[in-house]
Amino acid sequence: MKLEELPDEGAYTPGDNACAGCMAANIALNVMRILGKNTIVSVPPSCMSVFGGTFPNINWDVPYFHMQFSNTASTITGISRALKAQGKEDIVVLGMAGDGGSADMGLQTLSGAAHRNENILYICYNNQAYENTGIQASSVSPYGAWSTTTPVTGDFAGNEYMPKDLPRILIAHDAKFVATASTSHIQDFINKVEKAKNMKGFRYIEVLSVCTPGWRTESHLGPQLAKEAVESGYWLLIEFENGELNLNYEPKFTGLEDFLMKQGRFKHISAEQIEEMKKHIKRRYQTYKNLMMNNENNCK
User: Fold this and answer.
1) I need a labelling partner for 242 at 20 to 30 A (CA). Which of 209, 268, 276, 291 fits?
2) What are the angstrom distances between the C-alpha of 67 and each of 36, 56, 76, 206, 213?
3) Cα 10 from Cα 198, distance rounded (Å)
């Protein structure tokens, strides 16, 4: 499906209460333009549940479940199994959760669902912090970033840890389908969501989600930052399907400083920290390239 073939409206209606420039709302709107109304969705406590799923102003024009923070994967697993028992296996069962509810509190249920190859589609909109509850760092918050729990004080400025690589963790499960995406590269995003729609088994897509208040950036910069993240290698576009790993876009590894300096959460970052981030970006890229080479060698 091409961008121009998507319907103008989908099963996520416009007019939510998201912050100006919120890319999570953009992700939800475009996901549902692809999936359509033959979908059931569950969203845990998060930005998305607040701006799009607070009664009576629910923007999801499909059956909608709001469950506990750590329960997204287990909730949609239960829904999927109940539908199967009724002979209804053509409905997409979708979980939409942030990085905190996926990489931290929800990791155990997500891991279990991947291990069992549950027939679910799980989309993590990764805005790189607990943005809804006060901009606390999560395990996927970037190195050097300010948050309310990684303050710029003392000998070290900002978050001292490199982000957890959740897609690679799920690839280690030999999951059915694992991908990363960005709405800045919209055709790649469409291809992956449409593929996941038409597959059975466990499907996971992690989408970079610019948060204007949490990233301390201007509301119009979301699409530009999403694009710069991919171009610089900060956000890799990968796809793992049935044991085969592919890199969907070759980053240029340029413009990282410009990308960081547009965000107030990095205004304090030092040249040494930027160099450490660049090394981490290259290491992660090489790790995925090595995984691809190993896969090719094993298939010979």
Assistant:
1) 209
2) 22, 17, 10, 20, 25
3) 17
Residue 95: C-alpha distances to residues 149, 150, 154 (Å): 27, 29, 40
Cβ pair 78, 101 in contact under 8 A: no
| Distance in angstroms (rounded) separating the CA atoms of residues 212 and 216 | 6
CATH 3.40.50.970 describes domain 3-299: yes
The set of residues, in sequence order, having a beta carbon less than 8 Å from that of 297 and lying 6+ positions away, is none
pLDDT tens sequence across 187-246: 999 999 999 999 999 999 999 999 999 999 999 999 999 999 999 999 999 999 999 999
Q: Global pTM?
A: 0.96
Is-contact 137 163, C-beta < 8 A? no
Q: How far is CA 287 from CA 66, 110, 207, 252, 292, in A?
A: 37, 23, 20, 17, 9
Could you report the per-residue pLDDT of 138-155, keeping only the tens digit for each? 999 999 999 999 988 777
Relative to beta strand 152-153, strand 121-126 is unpaired
List the structure tokens of 63. 């059956």
The amino acid that residue 117 corresponds to is N
Identity of the residue numbered 198 = N
- State how far the Cα of 273 lies from the Cα of 1, in Å rounded to an integer: 41
